[in-house]
Amino acid sequence: MLKRWIGLLGSSLAVVAIAPALAAEISSLGERGIGALRLQAAPYNLLGRKIGIGQVEIGRPSKFGVDKTSPQNRTTMVESVFHQNEAAKANTLVDEHAMMVASVMVSRDKTIPGVAPGAKLYSSAVGEMQKDGQAQECLSSQHVALQNSGDVRAINFSFGEPLQRDPRENPTLDGNALLTLCIDWSARVHDTLYLIAGNQGSGGIPIPTDNYNGVNVASTMRRDGWFAKLDFSNLSDLPMGIGRRLIEREINAGERRAIALVAPGHQIDTYNLEGKKVRVTGTSFATPHVTASVALLQEYGDRQIAKSTPNWSPDARHSDVMKVVLLNSADKVKDKGDGLLLGMERTTLDKEDKTWLDGDAYNNPKIPLDIEMGTGHLNVFRAYQQFSPGQWSPETPVPAIGWDYRSIEAEQNRDYVLDKPLKAGSYAAVTLAWQRQVELEDKNGNERYDIGEEFRDLGLNNLDVYLMKADSDDPDEQLCASTSEVDSTEHIFCQVPETGRYKIRVRYRQQANEATQPYALAWWTASNNQ
Predict the structure, then answer these.
(1) Is the Cβ–Cβ distance between 519 and 407 less than 8 Å?
(2) Which long-range contacts does 474-480 make (Cβ < 8 Å, 24+ apart)?
(3) Is 522 helix (H, G, I), strand (E, B) or coil?
(4) pLDDT band at 3, cuts 50/70/90?
(5) Which element (helix H / strand E) includes 215?
(6) Which residue from 204, 202, 119, 199 is spatially nearest to 155, judged by alpha carbons?
(7) Nearest 5°: phi and psi at 494?
(8) What local confidence, expressed as pLDDT, does residue 243 receive?
(9) From 5, 98, 193, 274, which residue has the greatest number of CB atoms within 10 Å?
(10) Is residue 438's pLDDT more than 90?
(11) Rounded distance between C-alpha atoms, residue 141 and residue 431, angstroms
(12) What is the C-alpha to C-alpha distance for residues 484 and 486, in angstroms, rounded to an integer?
């Protein structure tokens, strides 16, 4: 087979022609990938129907009826294509990378389907910039977020800006680049979840991986048939050893971690512009697995809302709900069949073959995310299991698995008392997320970003989460906690020492901006009678 390397956006992209005999190999959408095929089939029948998702890149995929397209490639149906904030001109800015990313999300091909073939994909091409293009990238992002009558649930970023093009003096990944501020502002104002490709160590796409309100994605490769091993192309590690200088420039400044989730990104089957089957590698192709997974979950949520199902409301559509559902359901360590590890389906390994339990995030309450793995490996079927029990209020005891979205006042607590005892030796997973407050300095008062305008960072309120005995009111007596002072995500994964009644406590510890802070919470535990 012929292998060729394409230099793109500062990172290397491996493209391999697929021999027909290899077409039957395992799919990244199958049970050894992210579990999407199971949700697409009966009885779930989830395809992402009517759910708007977005894509922002340098180029764009082709669209039948606008561009000259290969007859073999008309299975990737794009709803609308743009150049920044205007309709795209025919046969301009059509790009192979963007086409392959789109194919991972929405391909309707029977042989290599996309994750959410029924979703409505809106794609904007920024176009080539001779120098810093963050303003145009922000404009494109905003335009995509406003599509589908302002209802775009997730936006895919399989590209980014090199630090060397940032116009700031001595720029670092501190959250203050224009594009990063824009992403965090749009996530809050447009209530859309941004999925950002983690950089690959060649100076290509560090910005906006320093965002707070989105999810950064790293890529995995197959190990014993399962997507479970961190791909060596990822650059996310502690700054030590030979690569220290490069790593220091391409991970977040300070203690804040970048990667939140990992997904298949090595030798992914897809289609190029000519409609030929190819294999591609990179975080660019891990990220659309997560973006389109949001569409599957949101189709399910919209069904429940339409049927007025108890414990379902429009809160299910909030971007932070999707964030905590995806992160809390991620695979860390394979369950032995006794449910103690919450039914996890694979053991995810870092580049040194260590598990999540070997990392500092497991042992240090100040660190919610593993430096390489975040909270673990995307499993959209487990995310469905996390999402489907619905929303539960702290006003009454809550089931072993569930989620919530509401607000908390400064220096206050909210306690979620679990309705049944937890089993000794089982693990509890809890994820809390809220948003950095970024505001647009709107010079012309049109409530939209215009090139030349700036953003203002109002800071991040500090929330913590604890797992405690149900009858305790002393945080010092917690079983486990996540108490980062710099992150907008807290994550607990810890073992229950003894059978008993427990509660989850959300604490608004320190105010930086508004006194009232919205948050999303997801939990997954094992009751004693399960």
Answers:
(1) yes
(2) 475/505, 475/507, 478/505, 480/365, 480/428
(3) strand
(4) very low
(5) strand 215-223
(6) 119
(7) -150, 160
(8) 35
(9) 98
(10) yes
(11) 27
(12) 6
Convert the pLDDT of each residue in 353-362 to its tens digit.
Answer: 999 999 999 9
Beta bridge partners of 67: 64
Residues 6+ apart with CB under 8 A from 208: 157, 160, 161, 177, 179, 180, 182, 183, 194, 196, 214
Residue 466: predicted pLDDT:
97
Residue 440 belongs to what H/E stretch? strand 438-441
CB of 341 closer than 8 Å to CB of 326? no
Output the CA–CA distances (angstroms, integers) from residue 61 to 8, 107, 122, 189, in the order listed: 15, 12, 10, 27
**Which three-class secondary structure string do you get for 73-139?**
HCCECCCEEEECCEECCCCCCECHHHHHHHHHHHECCCCCCCCCCCCEEEEEECCCCCCCCHHHHHH
**DSSP-derived 3-state class of residue 438:** strand
- Side chain identity at residue 90, one-letter code: A
How many of the other CB atoms lie within 10 Å of CB of 449? 24
**Distance in angstroms (rounded) separating the CA atoms of residues 393 and 414:** 10
Token pair recorded at residue 105: 């999300």
Q: Name the token pair of 205.
A: 């796409």
Token pair in block for residue 371: 């430096």
Helices and strands per DSSP (H, E), number in the chain: 10, 23
Examine the pLDDT at 472 and tell me if it is beyond 90. Answer: yes
Q: Would you say 459 and 395 are in contact if contact means Cβ atoms under 8 Å apart?
A: no
CA 140, CA 137: separation in Å to the nearest integer?
Answer: 5
pLDDT, tens digit, for every residue of 17-37?
333 333 334 799 999 999 999
